[in-house]
UniProtKB/TrEMBL annotation:
Name the record gives this protein: Diguanylate cyclase
InterPro entries linked: DGC-Regulatory_Protein, GGDEF_dom, HNOB_dom_associated_sf, Nucleotide_cyclase, Rev_trsase/Diguanyl_cyclase
GGDEF domain sequence ranges: 188-322
SMART domains xrefs: GGDEF (SM00267)
A UniProt-annotated Pfam family: GGDEF
Region called Disordered, residue ranges: 324-343
Lineage of source species: Bacteria, Pseudomonadati, Pseudomonadota, Alphaproteobacteria, Rhodobacterales
NCBIfam families: GGDEF
Coiled-coil intervals: none
Biased composition (Basic and acidic residues): 333-343
Taxonomic superkingdom: Bacteria
């Protein structure tokens, strides 16, 4: 041989040296990695590789005619990686042949299938540059993926914050409007409860706003604990709350939920050694499957029922009926005569 095997191993590590009979008598270090189950040495070249082009090559005699021409070939065994190659005769008698292989555009697959690194290629091989580009692209895509995840998380957090009451952690009016708009457009039945705290103003006036904030937080916890995970509990004003209960077939569930909330809110709430005493008035409206009420109608009807609870003595729940609306003006006048301190 005119060129020693160690030199070839450095200059073109993915080469093979064939004998005149087509047996592999030397394999470069990278070429040997291509045969993961056995040693390449001693195997017949045409039994290891399937020549795709030029076509109709079935023997070494056919193969020798392709000298100095490009070959398109692939491994016969899995993963059947595709290669490009060129054959060059060596030695004075030309009885040895060097086949230098490359992955071509399938280099990424080759690197993955055979766990190759830049050390498996010649230093001048453009494959190294391609590997760097692939690594850079992979790193950039991973960075982009992580950035997108962070942005998505920030977006979700911002949206959640925009729909959350900061004091109580409940949904706010914006969230309530979103839920109600969806409910009235659907065909399922649901219920709405408007809740107003009785005597809350006295807590603020006598014990201060810190006590009032504490009471609101405890009230929020109670309402969440007495409703289902599928229900929406929202704080829509200072001491005003609304609960939306989906999939309610009749008013019985809402009556039970309202009764539990009223009973629990009548228990004193401790703050700095003082008892804060409040109660709750509730107006409830049930929307059946055939009801065509708008969101505004639903909230207005719940308010009318809430007004009725206030007028009847507070600490109670009233379910809306059309008859209540006829009595609403009289109840409003009576409420105004009593004045705001009645709360």
């Amino acid at each position: 041989m005119l060129v020693s095997a160690p030199v070839l191993d450095v200059l073109c590590p993915m080469h093979l040296v064939l004998s005149a009979t087509g047996h592999i008598i030397h394999a470069g270090p990278t070429a040997q990695k291509l045969c993961v189950t056995a040693d390449l040495l001693g195997q017949r070249f045409l039994e290891v590789f399937d020549i795709k082009r030029p076509r109709a090559i079935v023997s070494m005699a056919d193969l020798h005619k392709t000298r100095d021409l490009k070959l398109h070939l692939e491994l016969r065994d899995p993963p059947r990686t595709a290669f490009k190659g060129i054959m060059v005769p060596v030695g004075d008698a030309g009885n040895h042949t060097v086949v230098n292989l490359s992955f071509g555009i399938s280099i990424v697959d080759g690197v993955r299938d055979f766990s190759l690194s830049n050390a498996d290629f010649a230093a001048t091989d453009l494959a190294i540059e391609m590997l760097y580009l692939v690594e850079a692209k992979t790193a950039a895509m991973e960075a982009s993926r992580k950035l997108n995840l962070r942005l998505q998380g920030a977006k979700i957090a911002a949206e959640e914050q925009a729909f959350t009451d900061t004091l109580t952690g409940l949904k706010n009016r914006r969230a309530l409007d979103t839920v109600l708009k969806r409910m009235v457009k659907g065909t399922a039945c649901f219920g709405v409860m408007n809740i107003d705290l009785d005597y809350f103003k006295e807590v603020n006036d006598t014990l201060g706003h810190a006590a009032g904030d504490h009471v609101l937080q405890i009230v929020a916890q109670i309402m969440v604990s007495e409703t289902r995970k599928t229900d929406t509990v929202a704080r829509v004003g200072g001491d005003e709350f609304t609960i939306v209960l989906p999939e309610v077939r009749n008013g019985n569930l809402m009556r039970r939920v309202g009764r539990r909330i009223i009973d629990r809110l009548e228990e004193p709430i401790a703050f700095n050694g003082q008892d804060c005493r409040i109660s709750a008035s509730i107006g409830t409206v049930w929307i059946g499957e055939e009801d065509q009420s708008s969101m505004e109608d639903v909230l207005s009807n719940a308010d009318v029922a809430l007004y009725a609870s206030k007028h009847a003595g507070r600490s109670r729940q009233t379910v809306y009926t059309p008859a209540l609306r006829k009595r609403a003006p009289n109840m409003a006048r009576a409420e105004r005569r009593q004045g705001p301190d009645a709360q």
